[in-house]
Each structure stands twice: as C-alpha cells, then as structure tokens.
C-alpha cells in the first residue's frame, strides 16, 4: 500500500533559476551592463575570481535547458528577466533583441506544456540606474514600475505568475549594508532606506501591472526564516525577537499591516527610513500570492562565542544549518500573524560539494534535504497553511553570486568548461517523487 499523498493533484511542482546566474551573454544583442557585471569585473569581489560573463550559457542553450526541465515531470519553471537585457539604461528605449530572447523562451516552455513563473528583479539592476544612485534614489522605484508595466503588457497573457522582487532583504542588506553583494556599498542607513524604496517599487509595479489587465497572478518573493533563542535567557530571547522583526516582519508588515514593526524601528533609531505620505498605501497592494524562500533558521545566542545550534541536521556547503522543521514553524507563524494569500515555496535547496563520478553525480545529502523539507511543508499544509506549489532551487549549478562557481546548488551538474549538463541523483529522485504524487492512491 502506498503512503497517503500530502499534496493535491493540482499542486504546482517546479524548478527555479535567475537570469544573471545562468544566462551569460553579458554584452550580446544590445544588453546593457548590470550592477553584477560591474561588481564582478572590479576584481577581488568574487571568491574564485570568476564572472557571470558566460555562466551556464543559457542564453544560447535555453532549448536544451527547457528539454531538461520537461524531463523532470515538473509543471512550471521559475526564472527571472534581466532588466538591462530588455532596457539597457533602465529607462528610455527598449531592446527588442532582449525581449525576443524571452519571447523564444516562453514559446519553448509553452511547447512543453510548462507554466512560466517570472521574477522581474533578481538583483541585477541596470548599471546606468546605479550611476544615478540605484535603489537609494527614490526615482528608481518609478523606473521599475515602468519596466514592470512593459513586461506585463507584452507577456502578461502568457505567464502564470509574476513576482516583482526576489529577496529584497538581500538586495538591501547584502548590497548596501555589508558590501557582500553588488553594488558593494557598506552603510547601514543606506541599506534601510533601500529596503523602503524596494518595497515602494513593489507596490508601484503591482499597480502598473494591474493597469495593463494582465491575467498573470501577481506577488512578491521574500526570503524568510524563524529566529530561535539559543537559551531561555532574556538576552537570547530579545535577540531572537529583534532578528525576526528586522528580517521577516520588516518586509511583511508594510505589505500586510501598513507599517514597519515598532521593535525594528526603535532598534534602527536614526537610521530609520524616510517614508513619505501615501507610501504604505502603495506598498500594501493586495497580493495574488506570496513567494517564500526558505533555507535555514536564525539561531540567536548572546554568548561569546555563540552557542552551537541544537536540533538541526548538519550544514550545507554554504555553512547554513539544515533545519527542515523551521519551514513548518515559519509557515505556521506567518499564518497566525498575517491575512495571507496563497503561498508558493519559491526557493528551497542546498549547496553540496558534488562530483561527477563515472557519468553520475551521487548527491544523497541533497535528496535527504529535499525529502525532509517536503515533509516539513506537508506538515504545515496539514495544519491549514495554503501552499499551492514548490520550486526547487536550483535547476542548474550556476554562478553563486560572490561565491562564483565554487558552490553547487543545482540538481543538474554543469561542467563549466564544456557546458555539459548531467542529471544528478537528486534530479532523478525529484522526477520520480513528482510522478508518485500524481498517481491515484490505491
């Protein structure tokens, strides 16, 4: 007898990527430079000294990659558009050659019966806008809305879902807070103001896209985590509450409650954002869906050195704790605190030190990771959380931001010298798991 199926037959299974991490073709067919092109080319910014100039060469190999996606039994593909590929300056003229690429990609997906879930912004701002202040300049939010409207006007009847932003927490805190990511600025006040402009741009884009009459579901993708105190001490509990407030609640409260969390505002003090009248009304546009990216929890210890996390399942190659039960805990917490739209798990996966051995990539650790997180997801759904789909990160090994090509998140191995793709054991497991979910229980 088969085990009960926790996922409905209309649950969406997918894989995910982002433009800069896989496309390559960084200066072809009229594409303008992005902040990540500039960041990589500065030298000394990427751990392995690499760039995203070629990456997985998806720009030229997209048909091969769509065939791979189709072979995995998934329903949908989540990908992002490179803003500077379709609008090199981030304002003004559109680049038809860039739009043609995404038109061909959508055709290829449609031919295979695959749904398209598009992200408008996955961290690769046109460098021309950065030259005018980037996300620190409030005007960039309005330029983003123009871009969103044009994409929705052209493709809005061919795309299942459009997310405005992927993980604005990273864009603000890693791009402007500690300089780990492009554009490489380290200034706390700037990071907090950027987070507000990113949220403002989200709301403006939602309004602009809805005005086009698009049939796509519209939403945003946020990276989120629980924050657990290491002990019952007052200091550890206070650390955990603040961590949750300035990460999860900082982006959720403006969208769903029309304000920033007071605890985080007090902690930010003089670094708090400038908010103009009407901003929260713009930010709080109704969502058709909320995308949740989950990888780890925050484990908060005020001790020096901090206490080692307890209850996890080890660590990924990124050094992130494997804590699948945190996904259940997070989703239940969100359900208690907010009036949520349907949720998609838009990213979940692990970096693993994979090797190609005799034509095969044995990655049992990744299989265990995915299986445990799907069990945690099912547990949340059984307790009433409305989750409509799961997108595994990532389809391909790719350019992992400031780690370059040193970290492999893909369920498909990429030999960067030859661009040969090889299904890892985890890809075969995921394919077969999805097939099993579609069978009618005996």
UniProtKB/TrEMBL annotation:
Name of this protein: Beta-glucosidase
Family: Belongs to the glycosyl hydrolase 1 family.
Residues where substrate binds: 21, 122, 166, 295, 393, 400-401
Record-listed E.C. numbers: 3.2.1.21
Top-rank taxon, per record: Bacteria
InterPro entries, alphabetized: GH (IPR017853), GH_1_N_CS (IPR033132), Glyco_hydro_1 (IPR001360), Glyco_hydro_1_AS (IPR018120), Glyco_hydro_1_beta-glucosidase (IPR017736)
Calcium in keyword set: no
Annotated organism of origin: Rugamonas brunnea
Catalytic class of the enzyme: hydrolase
GO biological process terms held by the UniProt record: cellulose catabolic process
Catalytic residues in the record: 167, 347
């Amino acid at each position: 007898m088969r085990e009960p199926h926790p996922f409905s037959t209309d649950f969406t299974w997918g894989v995910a990527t982002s433009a800069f991490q896989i496309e390559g073709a960084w200066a072809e067919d009229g594409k303008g430079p992005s902040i990540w092109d500039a960041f990589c080319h500065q030298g000394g910014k990427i751990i392995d000294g690499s760039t995203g100039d070629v990456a997985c060469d998806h720009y030229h190999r997209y048909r091969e990659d769509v065939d791979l996606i189709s072979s995995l039994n998934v329903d949908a593909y989540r990908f992002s558009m490179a803003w500077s590929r379709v609008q090199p300056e981030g304002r003004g003229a559109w680049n038809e050659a860039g739009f043609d690429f995404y038109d061909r990609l959508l055709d290829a997906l449609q031919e295979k019966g695959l749904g398209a879930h598009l992200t408008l912004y996955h961290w690769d701002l046109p460098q021309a806008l950065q030259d005018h202040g980037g996300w620190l300049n409030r005007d960039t939010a309005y330029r983003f809305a123009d871009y969103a409207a044009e994409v929705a006007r052209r493709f809005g009847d061919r795309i299942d879902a459009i997310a405005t932003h992927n993980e604005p927490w990273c864009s603000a805190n890693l791009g402007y807070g500690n300089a780990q990511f492009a554009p490489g600025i380290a200034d706390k006040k700037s990071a907090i103001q950027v987070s507000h402009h990113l949220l403002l741009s989200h709301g403006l884009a939602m309004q602009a896209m809805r005005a086009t009459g698009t049939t796509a579901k519209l939403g945003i993708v946020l990276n989120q985590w629980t924050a657990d105190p290491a002990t019952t001490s007052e200091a550890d509990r206070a650390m955990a509450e603040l961590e949750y407030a300035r990460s999860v609640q900082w982006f959720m409260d403006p969208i769903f409650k029309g304000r920033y969390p007071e605890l985080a505002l007090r902690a930010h003090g003089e670094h708090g954002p400038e908010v103009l009248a009407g901003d929260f009304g713009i930010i709080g546009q109704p969502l058709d869906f909320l995308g949740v990216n989950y990888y780890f929890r925050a484990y908060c210890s005020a001790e020096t050195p901090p206490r080692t996390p307890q209850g996890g399942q080890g660590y990924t190659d990124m050094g992130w704790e494997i804590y699948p039960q945190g996904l259940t805990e997070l989703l239940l917490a969100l359900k208690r605190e907010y009036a949520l739209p349907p949720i998609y798990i838009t990213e979940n996966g692990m970096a693993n030190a994979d090797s190609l051995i005799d034509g095969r990539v044995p990655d049992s650790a990744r299989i265990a990771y995915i299986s445990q997180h799907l069990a945690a997801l099912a547990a949340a759904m059984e307790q009433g959380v409305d989750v409509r789909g799961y997108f595994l990160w990532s389809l391909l090994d790719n350019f992992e931001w400031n780690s370059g090509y040193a970290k492999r998140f893909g369920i498909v191995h990429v030999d960067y010298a030859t661009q040969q793709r090889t299904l890892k054991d985890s890809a075969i497991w995921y394919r077969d798991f999805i097939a099993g979910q579609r069978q009618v229980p005996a």
